[in-house]
Amino acid sequence: MKKTAKTMRIRSAIAVSLLALVLGAAPVQAATPLETVRAEVNKVLEVLRNKSLKEEVKREKLRALYGEMFDQEELSKWSLGRNWNKLSEAQRKEFLPLFQQVLEKTYGDRILAYSDERIVFDKEVPISGNRVEVQTRAVTKSKEIPMHYRVFRDKSGKWKCYDVVVENVSLVMNYRSQFNEILAKNDAEELLNILRKKVKDQKS
Amino acid sequence: MMRLLCALVVFATLLAGCAHGPPAGSAPGPAAEAPVTAVASYARGGNLETLQVAAQQGEPAGTPEGAADEGAGEDEFDDGMMEDVPAAEQVTIADPWEPFNRAMFTFNDRLYFWVLKPVAEGYSAVVPEPARVSVGNFFSNLRSPVRFVNCLLQAHFIGAATELFRFMLNSTIGLAGLFDPAGGEEIGLLRQDEDFGQTLGSYGVGQGFYIVWPFLGPSSPRDTLGMIGDYFAYPISYLDPWYAWLAVRGYKAINDTSLQIGDYEAIKDAAIDPYISIRNAYIQYRQKKVEERGAIGRSEPDIPGAGTPARRLRP
Question: What's the complex ipTM?
Fold first, then answer.
């Protein structure tokens, strides 16, 4: 299987260089989903590995990288599913940053505890139309955790992440099950209340 | 090829099974509470492909159409981006025992924070990580018969052979399973995580409904039956007297916990409703495990919502 990863890497390298040839002076958008994710994940790893940075600074840098890598609106839409329509324009505006803060805090904590995982970039698998899943693995001493990034091409042509599938569990689908449950009994305002409280609790 | 064959068998089983009940993965039975049913019918109605499959399966004609009608009045969302949402991904499960399950969830949560975690932390302070990984390998090697039998039961012969070779190599050069040379870079025989719950799933048996057992955690009637089946193929089960068995089980739990401290906390912290989050994670995880049956290693492409008929049949 190592061989496959290697051939995949070579193959995608060839694909990228071919693309660059065809497009001449290749613009940024020409990057494949895998290359885009690889570059962004590597930037994250660089921040995490930099021992000279204080945790505050790291968090700030990670927040910027998150914004580069993820499309918060798309991620929120997928997390809410059909319930997206239950939110008014104003409620959506409030939902996006609230939800983003919840994610940043929890996953920030998690990856800041990062030690010596190696990330292996395996392959990209088309999902549909302009959606692609980039499959990676986090390799630690005791185990391997498959992590798949789902990306789509946004309006500017850049591949943006809208879902992460860790050990076969889709993040947005997991949140959708929770939002569904909450919105089955409550209105959108109550959901925002719950999120506001969650963010406040996380800060304290 | 093998995979295709298996898929066909499952496809046939599923079609045959439809006469008796809803397909695996959908919220079955009258027990499904309103929100769960709503989600399930949304999943069914959200995608034309699934809709047709549902119709073929001879479900009451009203159900999918009703769901479609309900969706028709709404919006940009469905017409726009939602058309390429793989509906097959939205897995739901009935939860008629929710009050009991929530109580057991709390029990297990306390058990983790009050007992398991402190003990595991003390243990990992004394025993270095490589040793704990080796203990994990040792127990994993002892579980080989379970994986081997289930590969066979799923007609997954390459998987069975893989498990057999792994067991032979790891029990010998791997020093009684303490190391995993078979899974290393040179040999590359990956562990085939098959259990009886997955075997039943591959035969088309649905999860049924959600159960949280004390100590054992998330499960379902299918996976509980699976656990009982696997119990007999697991050598540890035959330890005598019973307290030796209990001690070994307890030790294994502590060792396992010591290698994943922080995982549960992270899931819980990220959740808006931890109970729902873990319920959903469990069924997503198990569903994928059943669907992945037949894949050797990681080289097989894995396309969500497409591919084998078995996959498309599961709403």
Answer: 0.80
